[in-house]
Design goal:
4 helices; 8 strands
């Protein structure tokens, strides 16, 4: 019977003492990230449930805290520039069908904002209906009031596909670039994603706003902790196989 004597080998012990805290630390960091992400999603969901408020006036745009305003609902009134509609390549959130989100400049009518614009993501259309002629009645005329969620401009990354302005296909919702192509200025430093329901067969389909933040931190935490357990098990099995546990024989 073993008397519990343990004679650790130097280098396996050194490597285990180095790697084990790292794995445990990574697991703990992912648990912290899990709590942070869960709280962030809850705050965003709470924002979306707020009562819509009027869009901030043009004079305040430069000083807005967009991080605090994103996903909050707003109402905005103006006239759409339908001839400058832009098509942002995307997928239907429910069916994964490829198509476009229609982003149209809205010329504001509210006092003090005359002559300013905000880009409005009016909703999704399938690729086959990209041409407005194939979706009669899809371009509102006259003054309209839109309710939707404030969203920040997207940042282009090294992995972003190139826009094709000649074909009116946009891969990144970059407000400055799209506003320049539409020849509208001054433009709000954010866009509004229209919300609401429309009858079947009516285009575009608003209500594209989703909280798409991935929250896989629990899986990552379990992976790191699991690797720590595996490392410890290998360390113990290694020493058992070499007779380093128990009283030496002989």
């Amino acid at each position: 019977m073993s008397n519990g004597v343990f004679r650790p080998l130097l280098w396996p012990t050194v490597l285990t003492l180095v790697m084990l805290p790292i794995l445990l630390g990574l697991g703990t960091w992912q648990v912290q990230r899990l709590h942070w992400k869960t709280d962030l999603i809850a705050r965003m969901e709470a924002r979306m449930a707020e009562t819509p408020r009027p869009l901030p006036p043009r004079k305040d745009w430069a000083s807005l805290d967009l991080d605090n305003l994103e996903y909050r609902p707003f109402t905005v009134t103006g006239h759409f520039l339908n001839d400058r509609e832009m098509r942002y390549f995307t997928q239907d959130r429910d069916t994964s069908q490829p198509g476009f989100a229609l982003i149209t400049p809205l010329k504001l009518d509210s006092p003090g904002d005359e002559g300013a614009y905000v880009l409005v993501d009016r909703g999704f259309v399938p690729q086959a209906l990209a041409d407005p002629a194939k979706r009669p009645g899809s371009e509102p005329e006259g003054e309209v009031t839109i309710t939707g969620y404030l969203r920040r401009s997207e940042q282009r990354s090294a992995f972003s596909a190139a826009d094709d302005p000649q074909r009116n296909i946009w891969m990144v919702r970059d407000i400055a670039t799209m506003a320049e192509a539409a020849e509208v200025s001054p433009v709000a430093p954010f866009l509004i994603e229209a919300d609401g329901k429309v009858p079947d067969g009516t285009w575009p389909k608003p209500g594209r706003t989703r909280i798409d933040l991935p929250n896989n931190h629990l899986d990552y935490a379990l992976t790191w902790y699991g690797l720590a357990v595996v490392l410890l098990g290998i360390y113990i099995a290694f020493h058992v196989a070499r007779g380093r546990f128990g009283r030496p024989k002989g």
